[in-house]
Design brief:
Elements (H helix, E strand, L loop, with lengths): L1 H10 L5 H25 L17 H9 L4 H10 L2 H13 L8 H16 L6 H5 E8 L5 E7 L8 H18 L12 H15 L9 H10 L3 E4 L23 H12 L2 H11 L18 H10 L7 E3 L7 E5 L9 E4 L3 H4 L9 E4 L5 E6 L7 E4 L4 E3 L3 H7 L3 E6 L2 E4 L1 H6 L11 H14 L6 H9 L7 H8 L18 H10 L4 E2 L2 H10 L3 E4 L2 E4 L1 H11 L9 H9 L10 E2 L1 E3 L5 E4 L21 H4 L6 E5 L2 E2 L4 E2 L17 E2 L19 E2 L1 E5 L2 H12 L23 H9 L11 E4 L6 E2 L1 H4 L3 H6 L18 E2 L9 H21 L22
Parallel strand pairs: 2-3, 5-12, 6-8
Antiparallel strand pairs: 1-2, 4-17, 5-16, 6-12, 7-8, 7-17, 9-10, 9-11, 13-15, 14-15, 18-25, 19-24, 20-21, 22-23, 26-27
Helix pairs in contact: 1-2, 3-4, 3-6, 4-5, 5-6, 5-8, 6-8, 8-11, 8-12, 9-10, 10-11, 17-18, 20-21, 20-23, 25-26, 26-29
This protein binds zinc ion (2 copies).
One zinc ion binds next to loops.
């Protein structure tokens, strides 16, 4: 059924045929995975007999399943017809009006607010479930009823505009429900409280994205038609505005402050536009707010660079020569806040950064991830012996890195235009690079009447990575084109005086004087020192002579001088620098709990520091706090939903904490008036359970066999011990939700070559990769192929971890659940084509 539903949904989506096959293949596999997991769960061995993750096929499905309201079809129709914002408003209105049933007014309003937030955040954040702590109906001083929305810390995941939009929609449903407006300062100085609370939060906890004025806070809170409230998020108290009637905590409410600061005030301009498109009344006051106060982007960036942390070095400073040169563009593996640097750089920097490192930067955004792109301008270094050279390859970098005295230029940082657009950042000047030259050549070819080798020039124009020879470059510049950047130097970095100084001494061999050497180093001229003479490399001295060999001319700076004197237009080769500091180091490792855990089974104090279950079971009596599941036939505690011995159902019981009698959910014990709980401390036959598990699996656990001190889940549901024994055998650990995880940094990738990823052509074809990016049949590992949208290429370590995990799952399926194994994998190569959740 699931499969048909999905295919029906895909039917109307327009896509190429190979996308459709690919999507159908994924759906089929999801179905197979799900069904197999369900078979295992139906055995009743676990604390749940269903597969917990729900499957949703689109935004409407996702939102409906998150909130368990039957709105999927209606929401889908709305989303198809209008914008997210309008759909959210409409569905909220309908929920509030009771069109989908679901309870009293409070419940309906609560659902309306959460669902609308889920719609505008596309159902992919925890904000609707955990960022809104409560939606309630409260009273003003005059007795009128109003709506109050309380936010919690996780509202952060929603983003400022979306969080603030929740307040707009809450106001709309308030009107639908016929509630009055919230009247600020009905009982206490609530506006003053917000001002004090915001400043304390900024000082003691952390700053927000925007800086806002006190007067804006007062205006905002006193005009809000719905109360903005929140739960306390940090152990920091206000001083002057305590014990208030409507604000029940004296601590700071980070969620509420964020919605006000980064949302209502910080995004007031954007919200006004939304208010207009949604035709909402009562929000005109937003235009009286001053909004986000620009603290000056430069200052913020400066600040970012000055917060130096030990072990997180600053690699490049703004407006300093030699730092990363901004290059606009994108490669297979960059874009979307991932920037490219030359692959030789990590080795030269002693691996302070590698592919995947998070960096902080001054522009375009705050942070990016590093990727390596080998077609960028290479770094230039000075060695111990005075030699200056570009480092073009990783091998070369490895060879010279211990001899590097100074890195003169770090080379390029490739940043996509989209990153500037996304961050609304100004575009700094572009350096003159090969691809710009090639474009100029292309347009020149269309207009010039000069007698040139058109085929040759067209080839150069179409292939910016293939440079012309020195002679060709200078010949082409006669067409009125700037000099090709490969034969240009960093003229901006030297003065006119220095240019003349160099011009006077320029020769194949020059005196080794410090001033001259410094000039050459700043220009980026590769040279060596022999017999105390400076010798520029051949491919450097020729263009230098051509550029400096002309007559002395009047000029304002070096760039103008060489252009005028040589008659060849020379462009700025280094226009903008990106400031970079190492943020978070790259990580790709198993995600473990601290301390690591084999099985979610509570050993209490008996396991010692390592929570060792084998140690705990040596004791004669063992008590532990677990869920109230019990088999009446066998008189035995059970972990699973069914008895392991007789198969009878072991319903989770809510028992009185005093007399252990059955208590109805939400009620008190009829006999003692005490509340009930779904878990209790019971005597558990741990030794026998271990022995039984060992026999069942034929695997002996070794010390330390790590459980947890106590369980944290609502019902204190434990895992069967067998799972832990098998995890230990396969060198794996459980995360707190019972999953096995591997952490790695996300990076974009649009294309790949089969030879880069160690997957055979046959396997790729089987997976649907039949053609390369130009549409030619895929036959060679050198062809460039589009990476399909749901596919990931993972590190080898991650793949090995997944192999171990697959083996664990198979053994668990066979021995614990007595089912067919699923993966049947023996090596990393068998892994390609399987589904992962990430
Ligand atoms: Zn039983
Ligand atoms: Zn009782």
């Amino acid at each position: 059924m699931m499969l048909e539903e999905a295919e029906a949904r895909l039917k109307d989506v327009r896509m190429p045929a190979y996308y459709r096959r690919y999507q159908q293949d994924i759906l089929k596999k999801v179905h197979e995975n799900y069904q197999h997991a369900l078979k295992a769960r139906r055995r009743g061995i676990d604390a749940a007999d269903i597969v917990e993750p729900k499957i949703a096929y689109d935004l409407a499905d996702r939102v409906a399943k998150m909130h368990e309201i039957e709105i999927a079809d209606r929401l889908r129709a709305l989303l198809a017809a209008t914008t997210k914002e309008k759909a959210a408003l409409k569905i909220a209105e309908e929920i509030a009006a009771g069109e989908y049933g679901s309870g009293d007014l409070k419940t309906r309003l609560d659902n309306a607010v959460r669902v609308s937030l889920a719609v505008v955040t596309e159902g992919v954040t925890i904000a609707p479930l955990q960022g809104i702590s409560d939606v309630t109906i409260k009273n003003n001083a005059d007795g009128s009823q109003y709506l109050s929305v309380a936010f919690a810390g996780p509202i952060r995941s929603a983003g400022g505009t979306e969080a603030a939009l929740t307040m707009l929609i809450a106001d709309h449903v308030r009107k639908v429900a016929g509630l009055a407006k919230y009247i600020a300062n009905s009982f206490d100085d609530e506006t003053g409280r917000f001002v004090e609370e915001l400043r304390i939060y900024e000082r003691e906890v952390m700053g927000f994205q925007f800086k806002v004025l006190d007067e804006d806070v007062i205006k905002c809170i006193s005009n809000l038609p719905v109360e903005l409230d929140g739960v306390d998020t940090d152990p920091v108290e206000v001083v002057g505005h305590k014990s208030m009637r409507r604000i029940t905590t004296d601590r700071v409410r980070g969620g509420a402050l964020r919605v006000m600061n980064d949302g209502l005030i910080g995004r007031s301009r954007k919200l006004l536009k939304i208010v207009e498109t949604l035709k909402l009344d009562g929000w005109g006051w937003l235009q009286d707010l001053k909004g986000a106060i620009q603290t000056g982007d430069d200052d913020a960036a400066q600040h970012r660079m000055s917060e130096v942390i030990t072990g997180r070095p600053v690699l490049s400073m703004a407006k300093k020569i030699g730092g990363f040169r901004l290059r606009y563009g994108r490669c297979f593996n960059t874009g979307f806040a991932t920037v490219g640097i030359h692959p030789a750089v990590p080795a030269l920097l002693n691996y302070a950064i590698v592919a995947g490192t998070q960096i902080k930067m001054d522009m375009p955004g705050k942070a990016s991830t590093i990727a390596l792109v080998d077609t960028l301008e290479a770094p230039i270094v000075r060695l111990d012996d005075g030699r200056v050279m570009p480092v073009h390859t990783v091998e070369q970098a490895e060879k010279v890195r211990l001899k590097v005295a100074k890195i003169l230029y770090l080379g390029d940082m490739l940043i996509s235009y989209g990153d500037f657009l996304e961050n609304n950042a100004q575009l700094p000047p572009a350096s003159y690079v090969e691809e710009i030259w090639a474009q100029q050549l292309r347009s020149k070819l269309q207009t010039t009447t000069a007698d040139v080798d058109r085929a040759k020039l067209a080839h150069l124009a179409e292939n910016p990575l293939i440079p012309p020879s020195i002679e060709e470059a200078f010949a082409i510049s006669k067409l009125g084109l700037p000099l090709h950047p490969k034969y240009s130097f960093y003229w901006d970095t030297i003065s006119l005086d220095e240019t003349l100084y160099l011009k006077d001494r320029l020769a194949d061999e020059m005196p080794h004087d410090a001033r001259l050497k410094d000039i050459l180093e700043r220009l980026g001229v590769a040279h060596s020192i022999t017999n105390d003479r400076i010798r520029p490399e051949n491919d450097q001295i020729i263009p230098l002579k051509k550029l400096l060999g002309g007559p002395a001319v009047e000029a304002r700076d070096a760039l103008e001088f060489v252009s005028k004197s040589s008659g060849v237009l020379v462009m700025t080769k280094f226009a903008s620098t990106i400031a970079v500091r190492v943020g978070r180091p790259e990580k790709a490792a198993e995600r473990k709990m601290k301390p690591p855990v084999h099985v979610l089974f509570p050993v209490g104090p008996k396991g010692g520091a390592t929570r060792d279950i084998l140690k705990a079971c040596k004791e004669d009596s063992f008590y532990t706090e677990i869920a109230n599941r019990y088999c009446d036939n066998c008189k035995m505690v059970s972990i699973g939903t069914h008895c392991r011995t007789c198969g009878a159902s072991t319903m989770l019981r809510n028992l009185c904490i005093q007399c252990r009698g059955q208590v109805e959910e939400g009620e008190k014990c009829a006999r003692c008036g005490k509340e009930g709980r779904t878990f209790s401390s019971v005597s558990y036959p741990l030794k026998a359970a271990i022995e039984q598990a060992r026999k069942k699996l034929g695997v002996v656990p070794t010390e330390p066999f790590k459980g947890v001190k106590s369980l944290m889940s609502r019902h204190r549901s434990a895992e069967p011990l067998e799972k832990g024994i098998l995890r230990q055998k396969h060198g794996l650990h459980a995360f707190k939700d019972g999953t096995i995880r591997f952490d790695a940094t996300n990076e974009p990738l649009t294309h790949f070559k089969p030879k880069w990823i160690a997957v055979s052509i046959e396997k790729l074809q089987e997976m649907g990769y039949t053609r390369d990016y130009t549409g030619k049949e895929l036959t060679s590992p050198e062809q460039i192929v589009e990476l399909m949208m749901q596919d990931v290429i993972i590190p080898r370590d991650a793949a090995q971890h997944l192999v171990n995990t697959a083996k664990f799952i198979d053994e668990e399926l066979a021995k614990l659940y007595e089912l067919e194994p699923f993966y049947n994998i023996s090596s990393v190569d068998d892994l390609a084509g399987h589904l992962v959740v990430g």
